[in-house]
Amino acid sequence: MRLHRLELTAFGPYPRPESVDFDELGADGLFLLHGDTGAGKTTLLDAVAFALFGRVPGARGDVKKLRCEYADPEVPTSVELELTVQSRRFRIVRSPEFDRPKKRGGGFTTQPAKASLTWLEGWDGEGITRIDDVARAVEDMLGMSYEQFFQVVLLPQGEFARFLRSDTAEREVLLEKLFGTERFLDVEKWFRDKRVVAGRVLEERRQGASELMHRVAEAAGEEPSFEPGWLESVLERLSLAVQEAEALSEETAGVADGADALLAQARVHADQIRRVRDAREMLARVEAADSASWFAERDAARRAIPVVPAFGEIAKFQQSYEFAVRDETRAAESLARLGYSGSSLREDAERHREEAGGLAELAAEAERQQADVRKLSVLKNSSYQVERRLLALNTELEVLPERVAQCRAQLDAAAEASARLEGLKARADAALALPEAGEALERTKKELHEAIDVHQKAKDVLQQVRHQRLENMAIELAAALKRGKPCAVCGSSSHPAPAQPMLGGVDAADEEEAAHDEQQALDRRNESERAAHAAELRIQACWEALGSDEPAFVVAEYRAALELARTKSQRQNEFVGLEAKSRELGAEKAKVEQDLVGLRTEHASLVTVVSERGARLDKARGEHEDVLTRRDHLLRLSKSLVELADRRAARDAALARVEEQQASVAALAADAGFPDVDAALSAARPAAKLQALDERIAAWERARATAAATLEELADVDPAAEVDLNEVTAQASSARAAASSAATGLARARAALARVGELAARLRAEWKSLEPLEASYAELAALTDVINGRGQNSKKMTLRSYVLAARLEEVAVAASARLHRMSQGRYSFVHSDSAGARGTRGGLNLDVLDDYSGRSRPAKTLSGGESFLASLSLALGLADVVANETGGALLDTLFVDEGFGTLDSDTLDIVMNTLDELRAGGRVVGLVSHVEELRQRIPTRLRVRKARSGSTLEVSLA
């Protein structure tokens, strides 16, 4: 890789366009970037890194603020780098995300990041304009990631000084980034996961075997035991128990059957004796019953049936008469309360009705008088309400202009938010898509790892099949031989001993099938790689859209703008409504003032009319409150008189119906044969009781017939005989219980034997299948411990640490050659792979061998100048090893950033001689320093000057 030209605008401390011609600067192979501290020397290296990878090294890359604060807001930030890699010359142009003034309106808008790659020589392909495609093309050509580039091409001395003094864990982090040993970490994890899975399977199988043993012991009713022969002894004891139970069951079953036959005979005889005794007792009770009175009571009740409902009608008529008397009493009391004392009810009612009719015309005037009085109150209240409304309108008209101005301001803010909404939505969508994109990336990476494992296994199978086929090719050729035909290999037509087919051999079809499986696994792996790459591009696109803002801030900003933009229509309607309301309130105020004058005029005229009408009505009302009250009194009096006359007529009619019904009931009782009504009512029975009499008589007749039939059927049975069922039943129950217990014992013994036999077979099979699993797990566990730095691993080094230790040993060898020369033979690096104190892992120990004392000592004990020499040697050695490791492009350009101020003159000479060696073969070395002595030693090719409004470049050639 060789740099040709760098141009930057509004980048870092440089507000104006600046350019650096590396071809001219590196004509001698060594040049110096000189300037005061803070002038922006390192920014030039940051510009190179940003052009290539879109980011800058070290802590400066975490800030993500690359635009110059002194630049004109209208000038865009950009970096242009022209370089040659692998004989291909191209130009890269990048712009970071920055805020620029809006083209319309005030404020700023975010300008997204951009990148482009244009081919100049050595390649005819089209240019690239996507940020992720540019980054991928640069990494492919350089053959290294941005972390490796920052360590190999840009040598930051401070980081290597920390590397010298760091512990094993910190060194491991840096070396892992440089040499890409993540795959070995995956191998360690794969073995650990494999052991966990195998251990879980083995433990489950062990647990299953233990559960089977406990189930065998539970089924056999014994305690489990790991003694040899325990299972066979259990089966033998169970078989003997089954034989004993069979013999006992046959014996008890015969005894139980004989006892059951005797019990059945005794029960039949006892039942016959009981039936004869019950029949004799029933016949005696039937003959002693008073059946004649039952028949007489039933006949009298049937004759009294017509009298009862007729008598009930008397009570209804009597109740109607009592109601009529109460109604008459209430009507008389109501009439007395009205002050009536006469006796001609209907004549007096007609007279009072005529008198009320004469007051009808004055009653209408009284109603109008009441309506007008109410209207006066309404007019007074309306005038009050109109006056209050007029006062409210005046108050509202005073504050309305301020509300209109406030609504106008809110409308302007909503309009501005609506204009910004589209840009904010794109950034918010990117922020919301980040979690899902992260999950997709993790998922695709996991699928990629699985696809790689599957493909590797399929590839191994294919190689094994091909190897087996080659080994057995003689068998395949022998199968194609025909009698009398020449051999395709030796040409002979006789085949005395052709190879014979063997069990498990493979042929062309097996190889083709294995190749097909391997191709399918490869296709799946490629597809998984594309999916993982697409997921990475999606995350990168999201971050490019977000820029330097946090996702939560972007989403909150968009939601706030969206909420404000949604109120635009509402604010517009409110503004239009307030203007319309202002016009409406003015018109309403004029109308209200006019209504108030009309109400006051109408109230004055109505007062006069009410006063004149009231004088006439006072004369006509008499002793009553008003004319309407007097007219209403006369009408109510007339109505009460008519009502009392009607109630007296109804009372007389009800009394006549009661007397008529009493005579009818007496006639019905005489026709039924009773001396009077009371006798008939005494003989009457309710329907339920009458039905009960019928059922009692029918039951008496059935009982007498049943008892007689039973005595006739069992005439030869002696009722005095006795049968003892308890003794016979006890004997049969005891025999049957013994037989049942024996049968149950036999069934349990047989079930236990069958269950234990089944479980025993499963337990033997499980023990046998556990043997290879135990051996396989022991082997896997031991290998996993070794790979992860435990067990038989005496170095206590994991596989990843072992690989890093090997790389560090190469770095130490390469760095020692330069350190030994720069320190005039005093110092060299010493690498150790021994374990640390108290059994901690080793492999990354790096000390310095002091030739003066012949002993190694920690790098922390070196002085400032010695630390710089060691750091520079380590950086250069690491650069060589990483370049060889990555197999990337030849690094023709190298930068060394600061650290020279700690060296004396003699040591500086040695360092310069070492750097001169790096120029061999056309290599260009750029030094970045503010040390004045370097300026005297190296002709100044590029000087950085700090200006008041930023930094500028002054180029002076030797």
From TrEMBL:
Bias (Basic and acidic residues): 516-529
Alphabetized Pfam families for the sequence: AAA_23, SbcC_Walker_B
Name this polypeptide is given: Nuclease SbcCD subunit C
The entry's keywords: Coiled coil
Residue span of region Disordered: 509-529
Domain Rad50/SbcC-type AAA: 5-180
Coiled-coil regions listed in the entry: 349-379, 414-461
Subunit structure, as described in the record: Heterodimer of SbcC and SbcD.
Superkingdom in the source lineage: Bacteria
Family membership noted in the UniProt record: Belongs to the SMC family. SbcC subfamily.
